[in-house]
Write a structure and sequence with these properties.
With 247 residues, the chain is mostly helical. It has 13 helices and four strands. The protein has helices at 9-20, 55-67, 73-78, 80-89, 123-134, 139-142, 151-157, 160-163, 166-176, 193-197, 208-218, 229-235, 241-245; strands at 2-3, 5-7, 37-39, 45-46.
Amino acid sequence: MIPVKALSEQGIERFRAWLSAPDGPAPFEILTDDAFCRDAPGEWLIDRSMRFSTTYELGAYLAETVFGPDIDRFAVRADKGLWAWISLALLPNLLKRGRGKDGKPFDLPHYLDIDPRLAYRLISRTAWELVHLHGSKARVALSSPRTAWGDVAEQVAGRQEVYAHPGFWTVAESLYLKPDGSPKAGVATIRSKEHRKDPKSKVGLGAARRLVTNFGQFERTYLLREMSAEEILAILPAEYGGWHSSA
């Protein structure tokens, strides 16, 4: 266990340089080097040896063990140096997986807050915040065993109308999670242009990406935040029937 710190501007640049050209080991030594760090906005401890099978597990660790429920969400969220430090501290969990990809980083915004338009892609922060806001329902977006940042995470985290919407997450949980909390097969399926042209094709119907789109459409007509999950489920198109009946 080591105290949580925040990377200074020099530390962020050092980490950024490695992410841009990841030759050799990551600069883990700067995590405890005062020349590259500053104090975090609180006193917390983190275990760098932790390994997680899904990004949801990482988010739950940060939300429940590191920060706890009474954290000042907005103050912690805004500290770019803090999340750069956490990204580096837990980096082995945040790299690409799969043949020919193991150990390679994603693009910079998945580790550093460098572009407001892409801030939602900062994996460790989004994982923490979704679990902090929605608890185990965040499994819907963060439970891929194949990647630290899957398509469902990209679609959900990138849409502000559903990111913090409690009704969306309750509905998504009832549609897409099995009783043991694991995602059902096909949750991340994308309905391609070819499938949309085929009136007989059911590929991707009712999957998570479609629910995100439908919520955006429903917000123009319904006051979804004042509706219960049961009321929202009742207005969903027929394509979701199979998902709900298998819950």
